[in-house]
Fold:
Amino acid sequence: MCWELVGQELVADWQRDRAIVQLDKKGTTLLSGWTNGTKTGHAQEVAERKSSDERRDEIVRATLRLVARKGFAGVTLREVATEVGVVHGLIRHYFTTRDELVAAAFDFAVSSELDSDRALLEGLDPLIALTAWLASTPEDHSRVWIDAWSEAVRTPALAAALDRHHRNCERILIGLIERVVSAGLGVSVDPAADSRLLTAVADGVAVQHHAVGVIGVDEANAIVFGLAERQLGLTPGSLARVNPAPARGQWAVG
Structure:
């Protein structure tokens, strides 16, 4: 008899989740707070209508907030549902697996970041733009990247997003190097190779600075700036002289 009651409750829960997902597809969502099919005092119907894109964006942003607090490994679909204020089944309507969701969240954050960075860099002089790109980024920004590198080993979808955006970053740096060369400020026989070298060193320095704490921000910048000046034939100290450049690497977590 006990198992029969449990089975009935599970079916009721499944039917409730399915019904709410159907409601959301029509533009109306019910907040979490249901118990055995009965709405508690904390649950209420959301009067505003949201499109599928708006709901997906809301879920992704909630995931990013959790990532910022707990890291990628600590995120679960149920926690995301709680953060958004919806039932667990609704999250699965948009993202069938946790891995798919965290990859989408990282993809959204970095795409937004790089769009903002490109707009910023385009309005700067070549040397200042290069300095802005190579300078140490905010701790929360670097820690999310570092955490993504660690989690990517176990999450293929995140690894694919990480690889794609890493290559996008290298392409941005290639463009900055070419701008410096075109302005007659430096030289580069192979901008792509120089970009890979500088990116690799900057990433390693970010780990030592933000994750391990063995070097400070001034030393981190000195290492990367010094290498860039030697590699690109820039006047020694030229990057440090225009630093601090306008800050980049701002996450769209809101």
Notes: The longest strand covers residues 34-35. Residues 1-23, 25-48 have pLDDT under 50 and may be disordered.
